[in-house]
Write a structure and sequence with these properties.
Radius of gyration: 17 Å
Strand content: 15-25%
Structural class: alpha+beta
Largest sheet: 5 strands, antiparallel
Strand order of the largest sheet: 1-2-3-5-4
Distance between the termini: 28 Å
Number of helices: 3
Number of strands: 5
Bound molecules: adenosine monophosphate, zinc ion
Helix content: 25-40%
Order of helices and strands: HEEEHEEH
Length: 136
């Protein structure tokens, strides 16, 4: 993909601080970290979002995320970690090349990864269960 910043980072055209790299993925430090060690897991091949990500890469992505999470915990001594993945502008996506955020969390770090809980009504529950069909 021409003009995709994460394609350029993944293929080394733009320098980055990489924690991990293999044939399929690069894990880099985010330039605008929410907390110390905020990292991005980026596939080397272009997929705009989770919907476009090939199944084999989706499977591998969670494994690389798991290993990276443990390395961040062991290396930085964080107290927790958020895995965040945005799809679409409405969800806060700003770079349209699939990526996962790994955000180490520290007690009272003030990093805002949260939402205000609503309430699931019976009506809404029934509607959602009748409309959403998941299959592998
Ligand atoms: P999102 O809002 O989920 O699309 O996240 C995009 C993330 O990419 C943000 O957290 C940015 O700080 C980060 N980012 C953008 N450009 C770069 C870059 N050149 N190197 C590292 N991180 C970047
Ligand atoms: Zn790309």
């Amino acid at each position: 993909m021409d003009n995709c910043i994460f394609c350029k980072i993944a293929n080394g055209e733009i320098p980055s601080a990489a924690l991990y790299e293999d044939d399929d993925f690069k894990v880099i430090l985010d330039l605008g970290p929410a907390a110390k060690g905020h990292s991005l897991l980026i596939p080397k091949s272009h997929a705009a979002n989770l919907y476009e990500l090939p199944d084999d890469l989706a499977q591998k992505a969670i494994l690389v995320a798991k290993k990276t999470a443990a390395a961040l915990r062991d290396g930085l001594g964080c107290d927790g970690l958020n895995l965040v993945q945005n799809n679409g502008e409405a969800a806060g996506q700003t770079v349209f090349h699939f990526h996962m955020h790994l955000i180490p969390r520290y007690k009272n770090d003030g990093a805002g990864v949260s939402w205000k809980p609503g309430k699931l009504t019976d009506e809404e529950k029934e509607e959602i269960l009748s409309r959403v069909k998941v299959s592998l």
